[in-house]
Amino acid sequence: MLRSWLITSSVASRSSRFSVLRRRIPFFSSSGDNKTAKMSGQGTPGGFSGNRASPHPRKPVSAGKSMCQGDGVYKSPNVFRNAKYPKTVMPQHSQASPESADESTYESPNVFRYAKSPHTVIAQRSRASPESIGSNTRRSPQRDAEMQHFDICKAKDAGHVILKRSLQAINREKRIEAERAKIVPQHIHLRPGMILLKNYLDHDDQACVKIVKKCRDLGVGLGGFYRPGYRDGAKLHLRMMCLGMNWDPQSRSYDSKRSIDGAEPPKIPEYFIEMVDRAIQSSHDFLNAQSHGVNAASEVPKISPDLCIVNFYDNNGRLGLHQDRDEREESLRRGLPVVSFSLGDTATFLYGDQRDINKAQEVELESGDALIFGGKSRHIFHGVSSIIPNTAPKWLIEETGMLPGRLNLTFRQY
Ligand SMILES: O=C(O)CCC(=O)C(=O)O
Ligand SMILES: [Fe+2]
Questions:
Q1: Which of 122, 333, 369, 373 has a CA-to-CA distance to 353 between 20 and 30 Å?
Q2: pLDDT band at residue 206, thresholds of 50, 70 and 90?
């Protein structure tokens, strides 16, 4: 898999590039109706901030706001002032210009790593005592990495507080339930080898909840969520964890262990593997039902997934246009598909034949959607230009305590 960012030299040039409207794609549903894909990119702020070379829009960060705006972790500089650990050195707010109020700030001073946040979880095996937090004597690269493991859900205690609900709240939940019951899966043939299964997970009412909870549990343990970076030190705008095998953005290759801390990636849960199998089967049923004489199995071959990349995007998360091509040459040649599941907030997903956002097509991936791209579409450029806040199903948030943002799982066969 190759994840390369589009490099643009200045904010001005990036903004002007982005002001060009991308093409809207027509949806072709199984019934043959033409639908217009819902668009979201136009609604997002067009500015860029920070020093990341990225094609994607960001909300401007104003002075005096959070040091780590958008990270979903440190919401206010006050968090640092009020931190209870005596040895934690507080950052100097004056050092943080609006420009630096980006995730690059988050990674540098040790104090950020050691300050305890509700969502940064210390890996189980090496839970540090408050006294040792901030002490330099026990630091090691492995420990640093463990300290950064990230909880995609609210802290357990907080998540399990049972509040007395008002009648209004109960009625609202009933309405949500009723809405949820109406959700019907729909398959959309985006292009040869690329099929979108809308609401695929939602019709199995506990699937989304199970996936989020499982990823949460795996994500806080060894081999769990961390913020990956490229060789040049630039950080990706997401948290990542790998299952089965580890993908390393620095070497752009797979391995059995992570280079950052030597941890082995957790195994892919059996339930996830079955889910991939069912999604591919469902795409075959759909293709076979269309009387176009397509050979479903060659358009979207079956896979035995042995690796999965799990990404968590907060509301400022994004991923530049890239191809997934670090899997085995034979897998790529055979067009073995990437099978992707989305949960939580909606993503604006871009895809096309070139690494050019102006030529890319755009589709919204909502919670419960599955996307398959294999065969002739295995080498498409794709990426996530934005996450649309407050679009996650309420029931999913209530049942899992998932943080604002989006969880995405992409399964592949090495
Ligand atoms: O989040 C997504 O929808 C895409 C993720 C992706 O392309 C990747 O992990 O390679
Ligand atoms: Fe990808």
A1: 369
A2: confident
* 40 Cβ inside 6 Å of ligand 1: no
- ipTM, two decimals, is 0.99
In this structure, which ligand is nearest to the CA of 380?
Answer: 2
- The mean pLDDT value for 203-211 works out to 85
Query: Which atom of ligand 1 sits closest to the CA of residue 347?
Result: 3
Distances (CA, A) of 396 to 24, 52, 175, 176: 29, 32, 14, 11
285 C-alpha vs ligand 2 centroid, how far in Å? 25
The β-bridge partners of 313 are: 406
The C-alpha atoms of residue 230 and residue 238 are separated, in whole angstroms, by 12
User: What mean pLDDT is reported for the chain?
Assistant: 72
Assigned CATH class of 1-64+118-129+140-414: mainly beta
Query: Is the full-model pTM beyond 0.90?
Result: no
Question: Cα of 2 to ligand 2 centre, how many Å?
Answer: 8
- 126-138 CB burial, b ≥16 within 10 A, e <16: eebeeebbbeeee
Is the pLDDT reported for residue 273 higher than 80? yes
Query: Is residue 134 a contact partner of residue 114, using CB atoms and an 8 Å limit?
Result: yes
Give me the residue spans of the domains in the chain: 1-64+118-129+140-414
Report the atom number in ligand 1 closest to the C-alpha of 349.
Answer: 3
Give residues whose Cβ lies within 5 Å of ion ligand 2: 324
Q: Which ligand is nearest to the CA of 347?
A: 1
Q: Is it the case that residue 130 has pLDDT exceeding 70?
A: no
Rounded to whole angstroms, the Cα distance separating 179 from 186 reads 16
Res 13 pLDDT > 50:
no
